[in-house]
Amino acid sequence: MEVLIAQQVIEDRVRELGGVISDDFRGREPVVVGILNGAVFFFADLVRNITIPVRMDFIRARSYGSAMESCGKVDITKDIEIPVEGSPVILVEDIVDSGLTVAAVVEHVMELGASNCSVCALIDKKERRQCDVQIDYLGFAVGSGFIVGYGLDYNEKYRYLRDICVLKPGE
Question: Which of 7, 88, 101, 171 has the highest CB neighbour count under 10 A?
Fold first, then answer.
């Protein structure tokens, strides 16, 4: 495994994102929603770096279907439990690659009555995009390669790593 983004670089960027989000949402109380399971470490660190009051919740979703069917369908296995109607929502995702899951969750959040829905992603892998998704707050853009660590997994392994690493074939 090769380190792609070191722990200190991640920590610095998450701190910056927390500051920008705090400035952008000052005077409002957004609902910050983490997309499980991968975003849990990023979510926790990000929320601790936001300096304004927020409400927090989680959603677990997966998308399926082809990009030709709008952007696929979403299967929500754990929904947001606190009311979001009339509130700004910030979705926190570990990685946006195809964009299918994030697009479907944004649509779902808006159907729940959120005033708006922003996306904060740790990683953007545009080369795999199948669906148009706006990322409002981005940690890092990466190219090809399968990455793990800081919540990102391969078969539920490697989430615990503090760095983001490129997984080599056979590892």
Answer: 101
Looking at residue 82, the DSSP 8-state letter turns out to be S
Could you count the other beta carbons within 10 Å of the beta carbon of residue 152?
A: 22
168 CA to centre of own chain: 24
pTM of the model: 0.91
Q: How far is CA 47 from CA 78, 120, 126, 135, 167, in A?
A: 20, 11, 25, 18, 28
Is residue 75 in some structural domain?
yes
Q: Would residue 150 count as lying in a domain? A: no
Asked whether residue 158 is assigned to any structural domain, the reply reads no
CB 152 within 8 A of CB 159: yes
Is position 132 within any domain? yes
- CATH number of residue 121's parent domain: 3.40.50.2020
CA distance linking residue 26 with residue 58, whole number of Å: 22
The DSSP call for residue 127 is G
Buried b or exposed e, range 8-38, using 16+ CB within 10 angstroms: eebeebbeebbeebeeebeeeebbbbbbbeb
Could you read off the pLDDT of 87-145 as tens digits, one per residue?
999 999 999 988 889 999 999 999 999 999 999 999 999 887 888 899 999 999 998 88
What is the extent of the structural domain holding 91? 11-144
Catalytic (active-site) positions: 97
